[in-house]
Amino acid sequence: MNIEEAVQENILFKRKSYFGTYQRLFLFCTELFCLISVITIYSPAFYRKLNSKLDVYVLCRVTINIILAASRCIIVLVLIKSKKISSYLGNLHAIGIHQDHELKRFITQQQLYKNIAIATFTIIQYVLHGFNFINIDMNSVWRKSIRVILLYTYQAIYLLILREVVDVCIHLQAAFKLVNSKVSSLVNNQSINLKSLICCRRYYTHAVKATKSVENYFRCFVTFYFIQYAFHNIMNIVNAFGGRSSMDIYWMFHTINDTLLMIYLTVNLVSINLLSRESLDNLYELSFKMKRMDMKYENEIFIGRKITDVGFTFANLFTINTQFIVSMFTLSLTIILALAKDEDQKNRENCLRNRFFFKSASKM
Length: 364
What we know:
Layout (H helix, E strand, L loop, with lengths): L2 H7 L11 H22 L10 H29 L4 H10 L5 H35 L5 H48 L5 H47 L4 H32 L3 H8 L5 H15 L5 E2 L3 E2 L2 H42 L1
Antiparallel strand pairs: 1-2
């Protein structure tokens, strides 16, 4: 049975591309619209005079937004250009997750959770954008309407791609779960043969190949996602502490929602790395039962392969794992504390200035 027949026979392998024809058309049209809208809305800020720190901050924020919008447009166009995922589907079919009822149940359950999570984040984002529409300060109704449409379509594109990333993560988790269950069954068996060990390593190799295929496809988008989250999170925190009381709560909720979405995506990405290393202890335990040298050699090859990091990477520089989460949260907390300290220092200076003014007025 070839790959195309496997795709047709099972519901898990019906798709032949990451995005369908209509999805690619939607991504292409809306992404171009978003880029043009961002340039149109924010370009007047370049004509402002830099008379204060606020003007400099506005110019920096506009520049970053335009650069991020242009970068994301390029990345999305690259994503929708590629149509085939035969390597990804072929390796998953070789593992046989479409034949395991428990794994199909696991995939169905996780996809349900995924749909609920994405729908929840979408509703929250749209409610926040509606609040922004009410409080936004723009003289032109046309510019105000374009900005609101931009916010809604921009978020729709983002969540559509993130939904696809989480979906492939679920299938890769199922693949490594199957490998780990086979390794665990070998540990529990009294008699171990070389054929079963080679079969486990072959399954693991297919899971790694499927992961690399997906990681190569979504690597740029995942890297861009974390970079954009960092920039937007910093700017949202600055806006929240900026003194505009009517919009403080908007920026705070916006930051919390973006952070929760980032955590949800990161958990799914990190779970692949954790599952790929889960059976390492079982393999060490398995080596004690082996008497033949060829079996010990095969087990050492398997262990050496599992020690290497498997999963999504950040710009192919390092793997997104638990250390990555700790580093990101440490950096975010440092930035938040620094901004909060700076804002507290400004408030103290204002209080001292007011006290000095009142004392001077009372002496007069």
